[in-house]
Amino acid sequence: MKARVHFYYNLHKSCWSQRLRGKVVGHVQAAELLGVEFRVQPAGRARVLREGRKNVHAFAVSSRCSTVPGEWTDPDTWPGDWYEVTYNPFKAAHFMCKCHGTPVTHADRVILTQDRRVFAQGLR
């Protein structure tokens, strides 16, 4: 089985960081992920709520990823149905579909964009 990489937005470097087995192994401006699980670490979220400061505790996890080609910059032109996925530790303990407000734990396909946005197909 291929290793599962954790992706999160790095506020200090303004890019997506890739973490493998707890160690940062790379940075990308944008990426496409397949077979994604959205994870929130409860203790990390509790710390954010307690201290009022952000920390890394929420991830998009996938073992299949690639960089995004240039034509994937405008979500309105992408084929198929895409939904924006968000996470705000002050509003919910899970990732949410922005347009429906429903919890999201998995997606078949995810695009992490250069402007910090997350779009997904096949939400569950």
Describe what you observe in this structure.
- The structure is a single chain.
- The protein is mainly β.
- The mean pLDDT is 93.
- It is globular and about 40 Å long.
- It has one helix at residues 42-51, and strands at 5-10, 15-20, 23-28, 31-40, 58-62, 64-67, 83-86, 95-97, 103-104, 106-112, 118-121.
- The longest helix is centred in the middle third of the chain and has 10 residues, at 42-51.
- It contains one helix and eleven strands, in the order ββββαβββββββ.
- The chain has one domain.
- A hairpin with a 2-residue loop joins strand 2 (15-20) and strand 3.
- Strands 1, 2, 3, 4, 5, 6, 7, 8, 9, 10 and 11 form an eleven-stranded antiparallel β-sheet that branches.
What's the multimeric state?
single chain
- Tell me the count of domains: 1
Unreliable stretches, pLDDT < 50, 5 or more residues?
Answer: none
Beta-strand percent range: over 45%
Mean pLDDT across every amino acid position:
93
**Radius of gyration of CA atoms, rounded to a whole number:** 14 Å
Largest sheet: 11 strands, antiparallel
Helical fraction equals under 10%
Number of helices: 1
Structural class: mainly beta
Report the order of strands and helices: EEEEHEEEEEEE
The number of strands is: 11
Shape: globular
